[in-house]
Design goal:
CATH architecture: Orthogonal Bundle
Strand order of the largest sheet: 1-2-8-5-3
CATH superfamily: Cytochrome P450
Helix content: 40-55%
CATH class: Mainly Alpha
Structural class: alpha+beta
Mean pLDDT: 89
Radius of gyration: 22 Å
Largest sheet: 5 strands, mixed
Number of helices: 16
Length: 441
């Protein structure tokens, strides 16, 4: 428990190196945990027998509920399937293609704002810039609203709430403490969730008012959710259900992409040969113009850079599941009622599938290299029926933004700036990523 609380990622890496791909451990007297790191094990759990490994009853999942409620991230069973089907059309390939102009427009405006910094040596936090950008894009594309004015509120509240969730997850039966509202940590958590609620509930109330006044519909994700009706009862979603889904999709829709881009810029600053090759591809494919969806396929190395950054720093670094019925995974007995963990962060460093696993090498993701690896040696978006609903949205956004930044600027890490992992709900840079920028002609 002490090791997990101090450094969960290093602890999992050490356990895999010491004991292999399948672990069983006990907390207190009767709480059993399991962890699996081999791609075949991951595939069995997420795909072949996914119904046996659910989210609803896991203690870590209960700790997430104050933040995201019973949305897509935490719900399970028939309710989850219904909500997934309702949201799926918003992430169809054709809709993402339409979103791409919003993505590049927001990125272009951001790059224009960077012009005064270029060449001055002024340090600034690229992680914070990416969070603002991706929040703007998520707000405009999914909910037809400009949330740039709320970026600081959402960012600060989410980070603080995440920290409290992780604090309680490292305590035995930590979810029980959430029922004690006078505890200082619980008060802090509730205060920051309330700040997030004020933004999301305001968005929902404003949309309901517009619809009552007959001001037209945006045909965005929020309208889809509001119009959806239960097949049996005909009932629409309550404001509480809408809050949970909007909160989940808003936070997940910007946080993970922002982190993927932030870690990418950090890695590029440490590997100039990769950055030069990336610049050459972007210059050759785009010739100075704004990228479109039609350019994604030609920006192959750009996509590989994103993939490799996601391998080393997957925002969703740990997945947990509750075991419904007894199962056997590769000869290991898994009793019902136990909790099981999968870690993309650890599996992405498995030396059997990733030679020199700590080395940043986008050529790992050429079609030839990918064909030689098991499917679940790499799973930054999960897998199976519960694979992240926005994975295509996120990758499209990341490639377009990376190409546009690469066209105009080089970002270099400020010498001496500490880079440390902070595994909260997502894998964040603890001290941000301070950079200076230089313009490219």
């Amino acid at each position: 428990m002490r090791d997990f609380r101090a450094d969960a990622l290093s602890t999992f890496l050490h356990l895999r190196e010491t004991y292999g791909d399948a672990l069983r451990f006990r907390f207190l007297l009767h709480f059993h945990g399991h962890a699996f790191f081999h791609p075949d094990h991951v595939e069995h759990i997420l795909v072949h027998n996914n119904r046996n490994y659910v989210k609803m009853r896991g203690p870590g999942n209960e700790l997430l509920r104050p933040v995201v409620g019973n949305g897509l991230l935490t719900s399970d069973g028939d309710f989850w399937l219904r909500q997934r089907r309702l949201a799926q059309p918003a992430f169809h390939r054709r809709r993402i293609a339409a979103f791409s102009t919003t993505m590049t427009g927001a990125a272009g405006a951001m790059l224009d704002r960077w012009a005064d910094r270029a060449g001055t040596g002024q340090p600034w936090d690229v992680a914070e810039e990416m969070r603002r950008l991706t929040l703007e894009i998520a707000g405009r594309t999914l909910f037809s609203v400009d949330l740039t004015g709320e970026a600081e509120t959402i960012g600060d509240a989410f980070v603080t709430a995440s920290q409290k969730v992780i604090d309680y997850s490292a305590i035995p039966y930590g979810s029980l403490f959430l029922r004690v509202p006078f505890m200082p940590g619980v008060r802090t958590l509730n205060r920051n969730v309330a700040a997030l609620d004020s933004v999301v509930n305001g968005l929902i109330a404003e949309r309901r008012q517009r619809r009552r006044e007959g001001q037209g519909e945006s045909a965005d994700l929020l309208d889809m959710l509001m119009d959806a009706r239960d097949e049996e009862t005909g009932a629409t979603m309550t404001d509480e259900q809408l809050r949970d889904e909007v909160m989940t999709l808003l936070l997940a829709g910007h946080e993970t992409t922002a982190l993927a881009l932030s870690w990418t810029f950090y890695l590029l600053s440490q590997h100039p040969e990769v950055r030069e090759r990336l610049e050459a591809e972007v210059d050759a494919v785009l010739g100075g113009r704004v990228p479109t969806m039609d350019d994604i396929h030609a920006l192959a190395y750009t996509s590989q850079v994103i993939d490799e950054a996601l391998r080393l720093y997957p925002p969703a670094y740990l997945l947990s599941r509750f075991v419904v019925e007894n199962d056997v995974v590769d000869g290991y007995d898994i009793p019902a009622g136990s909790v099981l963990s999968l870690s993309p962060y650890v599996t992405h460093r498995h030396p059997e599938f990733w030679p020199e696993p700590e080395r940043f090498d986008p050529d790992r993701f050429t079609p030839e290299q990918q064909a030689g690896r098991p499917r679940f040696a790499y799973f930054p978006f999960g897998g199976g029926p519960r694979q992240c609903i926005g994975n295509r949205f996120a990758l499209t956004e990341a490639v377009l933004v990376l190409a546009m930044v690469t066209q105009r600027y080089r970002l270099d890490l400020v010498p001496g700036h500490p880079i440390a992992l902070e595994p909260l709900i997502t894998l964040r840079p603890k001290h941000g990523i301070l950079v200076t920028s230089t313009g490219r002609s």
